[in-house]
Amino acid sequence: MTHDTDTEERLLRPSLVRGWRRRCPNCGSGPMMRSYLKVRGSCAVCGQQLDGHRADDGPAYLTILIVGHLMAPLLHWYFVTFRPDPLNIVAIFSVGCVALSLYLLPRLKGAMIGYQWARRMYGFRGVEETPS
Questions:
Q1: Per-10-residue mean pLDDT for the chain, 132 residues long?
Q2: Residue 19, domain member (yes or no)
Q3: Cystine design at 117: which of 20, 25, 71, 129 (Cβ 3.0–4.6 Å)?
């Protein structure tokens, strides 16, 4: 089980990429998630504690922001170019929005946890607390 000290540098970009891939931000080998959005208590490979994160609603807000900014211009272009029936628009774009949201949500949560780990935020400070 490895524990880093306060002096070890934690690189941001590799941590974000590992989080996006839903892997441990420390080693990049162990899976971060135990189900769709549930984070493991610790990494099975390196032992890094993962339960100190505070992702909360951040990944959901980012998902809404990204999906909205991608789908709204596409919806506008599609409507202006083809003038389809409104029911066709609803059918096509609701499936697209749901699929893109389901794809992005766990990846953005992993990236947010990777960011928190790299910046030593919340439960990832790197200092072991002694029980009182």
A1: 65 97 97 96 94 93 98 96 96 97 98 96 67 44
A2: yes
A3: 25
